[in-house]
Amino acid sequence: MKLQYSLFEDHFMENFHPLTLTRPVYDLRVGIFTLAEKWKYALGLPVDSALRGPIRQHLSGVFELPEIKKEHDAVLWINPRFIPNVQLIEQIKQLEISQGLTCNDSLIAALISTKEHSKWEKSGIDQKALETSEIKPDGNTIVKNIWELFQLNGNEIRKDLILSKKIAYGEEKIYPNTLFVKPENIYIDEGALIEPGAMLIADKGPIYIGKNAHVMANSVVRGPSAICEKSVVKMGAKIYEDTTIGPVCKVGGEISNVIFHSYSNKAHDGYAGNSVFGQWVNLGADTNTSNLKNNYSTVKVTDWSSGKLVDSGQQFIGTIMGDHSKTGINSMLNTGTLCGVCCNLFSDGYPPKYIPSFSWVSGHDIVPYHFEKAIEAMGKMMERRSVELTPAYKNMMKALFDSTSF
Fold first, then answer.
1. Which pLDDT tens digit goes with each residue over 242-298?
2. Of 103, 215, 238, 386, which is the most exposed, with the fewest CB atoms less than 10 Å away?
3. Helix 371-384 × helix 391-403 angle, to 10°
4. pLDDT for 72-102, tens place per residue?
């Protein structure tokens, strides 16, 4: 049977705002890879192949629809919130056309005809047209809330190294005057540079250093951690366990259990913990995130859709920050801060814990960021990394700006 693939979003998608304001769920990063990349490896697809799915209207042109060929037999729809494992892949392989798998009434995967696929693309998923089998959540990793990304991150780094079949390569003699602890757990890709005095400590988990990444002198990285392709760890940085520095980022200071998606900077001193940052974020010098309340109670996080505070049940949550948001020097971010897309935060006190997209924030004063000024700054930052701000990208941002309530 000739199969094609399509990744879809369900009603949990809004639980991942503000990150999913500018990307589909499948483009969220946890571990070394995005959710789409994990499924690509698990399904045995070519590394350079594209795995994508239906997208919301405002993302059109920034993310592409899958190309479905009618001469193929069927399309496998996959919910990327369910992180693949061997058992789940085997269950999916046993599906026949018009059959699906569910877990707690959420659709995991469905095998449908190309004709049915066309209907689903236009009108949405018709689960009633499927013969479904309920599987137990035991042994399956299901992402439901945004803070689960950093909570799962360390274990996902371990799994991604197995999934991608990367070979450990951590010979100190190749990198003079460095210190490798348990080098058999250190994975260094081609073109990576590790300067003298750097310490890679992998006794508690693996460390992955991506292609053309640069770990500067006297920095310390503790595993499990991932420094992805073309990223830079600045001198004297302290990278603690369960951290992912996504592609083309620059980081310094103290970082613990944090995910940076890509093209983001925390290049100076300051602390970030139990947090997730999108693309094109810039944290000014000495920006600090609080990740634990003084009374050790659980952290309340604002629900993006309703604006109401929700008890997360978690003791450690720092900051969740959308794409293109920035902080000024000496900024302080409160426990459980949720910051939207394209915000500018500068003050000598804590800003609000909920910050709508396109906000210009000084203390507790919030005013709308003028759209053309925001786009101008956006273009300049992207140009520095030789990335074009396309009309489709600008249209996506304009749609978000128009839908934001202040």
1. 999 999 999 999 999 999 999 999 999 999 999 999 999 999 999 999 999 999 999
2. 386
3. 140
4. 679 999 999 999 999 999 999 999 999 999 9
What lies within 8 Å, CB to CB, of 54 at 6+ separation is 6, 8, 9, 65, 120, 121
Confidence of residue 390 (pLDDT cuts 50, 70, 90): very high
Strand boundaries in 172-253, DSSP class E: 179-181, 186-188, 193-194, 199-201, 207-209, 214-215, 220-222, 225-227, 232-233, 238-239, 243-245, 250-251
**All structural domains of the chain with their residue ranges:** 3-142, 148-403
Residue 112 has pLDDT above 80, yes or no: yes
User: Which residue from 138, 82, 70, 75 is spatially nearest to 106, judged by alpha carbons?
Assistant: 82
Distance (Å, whole) CA 112 – CA 204 = 43
Tokens of 122: 């236009």
The CB density around residue 104, as the number of other CB atoms within 10 Å, is: 11
Closest among 253, 178, 249 to 212, alpha carbons compared: 249
The number of beta carbons lying within 10 Å of the beta carbon of residue 44 is 7
Q: What is the pTM of this model?
A: 0.96
Cis bond upstream, residue 18 (ω within 30) = yes
* Phi/psi at 103 (5° precision): -145, 120
The CATH code that applies to domain 148-403 is 2.160.10.10
H-helix or E-strand containing 320?
strand 319-321
The CATH class, in words, for 3-142 is alpha beta
Residue for token pair 């998606």: 261
- The total of other beta-carbon atoms located within 10 Å of residue 301's CB is 22
